[in-house]
């Protein structure tokens, strides 16, 4: 938690920059499928964990990509972003996926966040990091700038993900609460104390 308040909420790529991870391991972490979480350690910055990419089925990904995008390019595009779930419904659908691992849940004040970051925000109509049976196509245009995004139907969620490239430096300014999540359920509040 202290590292997030000090450095901001970081994308995988920004975290690798901070932890000074070099190629070839850096490229592997950014472009290849991660079947397990990857722990990072740094003498100055401490410890962090990069989440696996198990829900992004590597066997099916290439067949879903548009505009000649490669699986490596797609994974790198995802790893350049910080992701937010826009609704409790989407959050609650994702939490059980990683129920074996403790998680940290950041609850963001949406109004403050949009006011400060609308220029950097991009929205996605799909869950870009998951491939299910009826998975939609995806590619360079999966993420659309906040003001260019067009809603399609009142019958669906207006968007599935909110993203910001690289990092949210001022995370403390837009944060409402931080919770520890265990066994897929919200546990104790860790911020503010």
Task: Write a concise synopsis of the structure shown.
The protein is of the alpha+beta class and 193 residues long.
Polypeptide structure, described:
It contains 8 helices and 11 strands. 20% of the residues are buried. Strand 2 and strand 3 (46-50) form a beta hairpin. With 193 residues, it is of the alpha+beta class. The longest helix is centred in the middle third of the chain and has 9 residues, at 71-79. It has helices at 2-7, 12-18, 25-31, 58-64, 71-79, 88-94, 110-117, 171-174, and strands at 9-10, 38-42, 46-50, 81-84, 103-108, 121-124, 143-145, 161-165, 167-168, 175-182, 185-191. The mean pLDDT is 92. The strands form 4 sheets. A 4-stranded antiparallel beta sheet has the order 4-8-6-7. The chain has a 3-stranded antiparallel beta sheet with strand order 5-10-11. It has one domain.
Mind telling me the C-alpha Rg?
A: 17 Å
Distance between the terminal alpha carbons, to the nearest Å?
Answer: 12 Å
Reading side by side through the largest sheet, how are the strands ordered? 4-8-6-7
The ordered string of helix (H) and strand (E) elements is HEHHEEHHEHEHEEEEHEE
Any descriptors?
26% strand; 11 strands; alpha+beta; 193 residues; 4-stranded antiparallel beta sheet
SSE topology:
Layout: H1 2-7, E1 9-10, H2 12-18, H3 25-31, E2 38-42, E3 46-50, H4 58-64, H5 71-79, E4 81-84, H6 88-94, E5 103-108, H7 110-117, E6 121-124, E7 143-145, E8 161-165, E9 167-168, H8 171-174, E10 175-182, E11 185-191
Antiparallel strand pairs: 1-9, 2-3, 4-8, 5-10, 6-7, 6-8, 10-11
């Amino acid at each position: 938690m202290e590292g997030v308040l000090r450095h901001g909420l970081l994308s995988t790529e920004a975290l690798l920059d901070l932890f000074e991870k070099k190629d070839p391991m850096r490229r592997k972490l950014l472009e290849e499928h991660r079947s397990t979480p990857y722990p990072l350690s740094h003498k100055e910055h401490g410890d962090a964990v990069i989440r696996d990419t198990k829900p992004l089925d590597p066997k099916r990904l290439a067949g879903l990509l548009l505009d000649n995008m490669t699986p490596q390019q797609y994974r790198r595009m995802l790893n350049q972003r910080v992701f937010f779930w826009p609704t409790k419904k989407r959050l609650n659908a994702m939490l059980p996926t990683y129920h074996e691992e403790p998680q940290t849940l950041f609850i963001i004040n949406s109004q403050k966040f949009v006011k400060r970051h609308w220029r950097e925000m991009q929205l996605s109509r799909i869950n870009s990091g998951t491939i299910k049976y009826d998975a939609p196509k995806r590619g360079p245009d999966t993420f659309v700038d906040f003001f260019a995004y067009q809603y399609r139907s009142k019958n669906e969620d207006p968007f599935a993900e909110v993203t910001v490239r690289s990092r949210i430096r001022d995370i403390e300014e837009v944060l409402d609460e931080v919770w520890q999540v265990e066994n897929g359920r919200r546990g104790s509040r860790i911020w503010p104390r």
